[in-house]
Amino acid sequence: MEEDVSLFPREELLENISLLEYEGDKLEEPEFEVESPPQEAEKDAVPGYHCSVKEDDADKTKKKTSVEDRIQAFHLQKDLNYQDKMHKEKDLFIQKTSRELRACQQRMDSLRRQQATVAGEITLQREASNTAAMGRLQAVSRRLCTELEDERGLQSRLTAALKESGNAMWHVEMEEEQCKDFQKSKQEEAEEARRCFQAHADQQLRREKEALGKAERNRLLRIRKSFHIQKEYGLRHQKLVEDIQKNHRIAVKFLKASLGRIREQERKEEMESRQYMQRRMDAVLALKNNITANRETLRKFQAWGQAKAELAEQKVQAEKEAILAQGGDAFKHLFHQRKQQELEAQQRAFEEEQKLRKQEIVSRILKEEAEEETRRKKQHRPAKIRDRRTSRDKTWSYISDLCEGKTAVTASFPPENDLTADPEPTSLAQVVSSDSVHGNLAPSTNPDEETLAEPEISGLWNEDHKLYQVPKEEVDQKPVGGTKMDKDILARTMEQLRSGVVRKQVVSGHEFKGRPFNSKPELIHFKDFDIGKVYKKKITLINATYTINYCKLVGVEEHLRDFIHIEFDPPGPMSAGMSCEVLVTFKPMINKDLEGNVSFLAQTGGFSVPLKCSTKKCSLSLDQELIDFGSYVVGETASRTITLTNAGGLGTRFRCLPASELCELDDSWSILKVSSLLTYEEKSIYEKIITGLSEQQFEGDSSPVDVQSWKESGKPDSKDQEEARPGEPERTSVPTALAMTSSEEQTEIALGKITEGEIGPFSSIKVPVIFTPVIPGEIQTKFKVMFKNPQCPTLYFRVVGVAIDVPVWVPKPHVDLKICMYDRLYQDSITVHTRSKVALRLKFDVCKELRGHIELLPETGYIQALSSYSVQLKFLPRVSLPEDAGKYFDKESRVLEAPMTIWVADQIKPLEFTVHAIVTTSDLEVSPSEVDFGYCTVYEAIRTEISLHNHSLLPQEFGFVGVPKFVDIQPNDGFGTILPLETLHLDVIFQPLKAKEYSFELICKSEINRSFKLSCRAVGVHPPLELSHYQIKFAATALYGTSVATLYVINSHLSMNSLTHSVPRIGSGDAAPVGPTSFEFLLPPDSPITISPSVGTVLPGKRSLVQVAFRPVLPDKLIRQEAFQALNKETETKPSRKDTAALRRELRKLSLSAVRLQGRDRPFRVSTPNTLELQKENLKTSSEEYQAAQAALVRAFQGKFDKFVVPCVVASGDIKDRKGLEPMSFSPHNTLFLELWCPAVAPSIVVTSDKGKTAFNFGDVAVGHHGIKKVSIQNISPEDLAVEFSVLNPNGPFLLLNPSSQLHTGETQVLVLSFSPRESTLAQESLDIITKRGTLTLTLTGTGVASTITCSIEGDVLNMGYVIARESVSVSFKLQNNSSLPIKFSMQLDSLSSKRVEDQQQLPTFLASPAQRTDVVGTQNHNGQSVFSVVPVEGVMDPGKVQDFTVTFSPDHESLYYSDQLRVVLFKKKLSQQILLKGAAREHMMFVEGGDPLDVPVESLTTIPVLDPEHREEAEELKPILVTLEYVQFDKDTPSPPATRELQVGCIRTTQLSPKKTVEFSLDSITSLQHKGFSIEPSKGFVERGQTKTISISWLPPSDFDPDHPLMVSALLQLRGDVKETYKVIFVAQVVTSS
Fold this sequence. Notes:
The chain is of the alpha+beta class and about 1650 residues long. It is built from 25 helices and 77 strands. Strands 21, 23, 25, 27, 28 and 29 form a six-stranded mixed beta sheet that branches.
């Protein structure tokens, strides 16, 4: 790539491009036309094209030839560049080869000298007969000879290469000589092209100037046109204004009339509103009186009720005492009496309700019949429809029959129930039917019944009364549950109340969260309570918070307050771990389960203790559900017992019987099922009836068949009930079939003597079960236990037994070996029992498939009479067990079921038992099987994760043994226990000790000594640089604070000798060179870390200091999100900030309020989203919303911990040697890593003022003034802090006025900062508030604004001109405020200054030399008034505004030297402008000025007497005017321009009446002056008032002029105006030579 660039030099390419561009270059401009350059110029611009073209074909041919020439020139230039490059390369190679050749010759000379030295030593050692030394020296000699031969070969090769390079060099030089002519022609062509381009550029510039002149003329024309348009617009605007004023006067007239009508209408509405409010007030007063009367009546009734209750209480107490005197149970008697009264009250209420329902139904039916009759008369229905009986007629007939006392129950049930077949239903059915009828008919009452209620205020319920209706807009605006404003106010109020009571508890930076107090016990449980008794329980509350806390009792829930009483004495402040006691008293009044909570309130929040009250219940259970008798010989009898336990506090009656038998106790449950069909109000009555019926049935008053028939008639579908109880045995419809059981089962398995009875609370009863086998085989029977209490479910248990007819048996027919591993031995003992009275021979047999895995020892044995025999079982599963076992082994579940056989002598049927085992493997799998750590430096460690999987169903212990020193396995150093089928993840940490290639194996051994290998390989790297610290733990740093740590980058690589120390290298590669080594830290993006310097170079044996800074900040995205949420919240709350009082006043005017609310809502709804979107788009980091959100997040910051790993890449060489931006060749394997621990915490000091912003902008302050800002800071840490402040720039504009040294916890201090700029510039400084917990940085900015103004007077001199004495003239000028601040100005005249008196005491000005005259105050008025005055004198100029000033010149006498100085003073301090005021006064209207001064510019102290006009002409004398002319002669041969001067003749504009309005002037002796070389134009003329005319005087020295004697000539100048004045003009002319 570099060769390609060198072959095409930039200059040559630019030249070629320019040549191609200039061929057909044409300029196009929209504002003017430019002709293309002449064809000759184009031809000249192309090198090699020097002839004119006359025909088109020839022109094309020439152009084609020129293109070919350029291509050929391009290739020649390319070859020339290549030859230059080859020349440089060959030259460099020759120099390098020459140096190597010289070095080779030097090495050869050195080797020859060494050979001579070694030969001499060999001779000496041979003479000394030192064989060992001779052998060593001969070896050295042979090595020197070999090296010498190598050097000779190298010398020959270098010589040949040098010769070949020289030949190539000659060829290159020859080719360069051949190309010199081409290079020279190329330069000439380029120079010619540049000249053509310059000519073309000059022509283009000339055309552009012409276009610019044309554009300027167009601009002036547009300006003139715009002036004309503006003038027309002014005329039209004036006409429009007049029309508007005329229309306005007409509109005001009509508006007054309209306002009068509106006010009249408002007065009428106000009067009506007052009358309406008066009526409302009267109604409210009447209602208040009625309420008072009702309260008195209610108070009387309450007193009467209390007296009646007291009498009843006394009566009850007397009855209680009488019963106690008779020795009875008073509580039981009162309880039954109260129940009786309640039942009677319910009966009465039921009867009353029935009567009311009957009346309602009758009245409703009568009303409907009347309506139906009317409808029939109108519609004339057919006869068939009239004869049809409706459902309402059926209902009416039923009610009439019911009122007559008939019990037609059949009408209440559908025909599907088949209840009509029973002519005499039971009383329970009658109650059910009647109640169901009433329950169905009750909802049909008329909701539109007439009411007898009357309003307390007459006319309030009249139909013509129109209630106030809220406008639709108001209804829509206020949602259900209150408006959003109401909800926000309620939420804020509740939050304030909670915050006043509940406080957060923060200790050592940790906030307590959780339950503040622990309760022992955790649940207050009153079990098995009796009504009327009092129960007490004591609980202990333990403070579980970090520090002192308080506890307050809130109370219990509403439904528990009548039964639960809490006694709690608040202990006051309680330290952590302290406890207090609470006494809970429970007095039950109803037999019902209660649940709730006891609520407390602590300083850190509320908590509650659960409370539960349980009534007495039956909790029945069986100790076992299966009784297995095992194997018994036919004829034997065995007995077992089953225990029935009642863990509840209520006793009941039980009965045990087989599950196939039917018991009367089941009927009560069926009756309860029927009661679930009734309504909730009727359940209490039917429960009492059902309970009574069930008790009668239990005692035997009714037969089971009757109950069963009632159940079948009362249940709509018996199949559904059977499906609902799938756990019960199937029943048939025939009672005899249900009672049928097997006689054999009854005789073989039966119950003992105890089959029924009473079981008390907290007791148990044992029920015997007897097994008497009759027939060999398996026998199974199911029993059930039923209870009298309907709430107790039926319990079931099974009895199983086996009847055998052999004497030998195995008590454990199933041998379970649990879980076994392959290749492990497991043993068990099998016991065989016999009932035979003789000894028997036994033979133990294993199936042939498992004989290689299972063994029974001994294989044959004898069992004695009535004894047992043990055989040893050995199980050693092999790996081939799944294939060998076949059908006995399940490969999916790994379960082995091996049948074993015991053969008994003289017995055909053998004994069998089964061996069960789950066989699993013991393999551990390590994945991956091979780990490649890659490249790792000796200063770091690499961690990789491996997984260890246990394929076994048993836990196994494992451990990695023989681990190398450079490897570590965690956790627990590679040892532990792995659970079944578990996968453990282990960390393998590799840290090389030196630079080499590592290959090793890690061995994991299990507890059964099995080994599993893990292959590892890695490459150790020794980088050329090292860090002094590889881990930096920053201290806890506050947000926007900075913590700095330092470390060193060290280059300890000084030598390449690997024998003395380890040299830097990568694995087994070449060592790194000794020299400067560069490094670069690569920071992660968006990290709060700064490293300086991040790039550098370290010399060998040196170290470089690196600073690492940690500055935690909040993410910009999080701050913007918080700011947007604040904007959303502010936008939502804006509509709720309306004035509610104003809305209430507007509600009185209904018609106007709707319009106003609509007009008020519409623009808000439209503008709110647009405003919010605009704020989101324009949100900047310097905005108030952004800084407020940032301050809020800083205060709520809870802390954060980050860990960063920063790589540091290393490269050999100096960073300064790289070319431009070319990166260094960093090796990825030599990378160092720096680990940073960065904990960020909330700041200890925060700014509480100005929404927490830490940047304070003083804004624009005028230079020389100062601005003040107050900043409030608060200590939010839990301790007092010593405060220090950083030093501000003593020469800067910022100053801290009230520094403090300490800030207590929670204290807020106000810092006063001052900004006093001394120059116009933007100033910024940082003020650090330093504490031991962190630093708070305040950024102070301000702009010093210079009070700059500009004056419209050029040169700061205002010349008022000539004025007639005792007259005045005014001139205006402007001052503009160019600064961004308002400026207070004042205008001061030097003549009115206080220093003027002091200056007058000094030497008069006219006596001093001109150089010493500094007073600018000239002639003043004689009358004491100021000659000059300015208006306004002081004021304020707004930024960018222009202020007009008027200066008035009022002289009272004639003088030419009126002067004064006007000073513009800003802010009463700064002098901004000095304007020199000049003026002259004359008594007459004419004046002459010009010429040389002949008197001092200060008026004499003497007063010139004023002459009357009659003697003025007599006393008039000539006034001299000196005019000096100097003719400058440059050269005698070259004529010089004439010397010129000017005189001004003027006529003063005056308000006085004068017969002449012009001034005539004439100059005599013109002819003589012309002879002397003077030329005066004009010599006479006249001047209008307020005008001046110039008299030009020029002089050329005549031929007879003597340069040594100046020429002096005089002439008279006469002025004729209101008077005649004569001036003597003295002309002095001389010749001077130029130096």
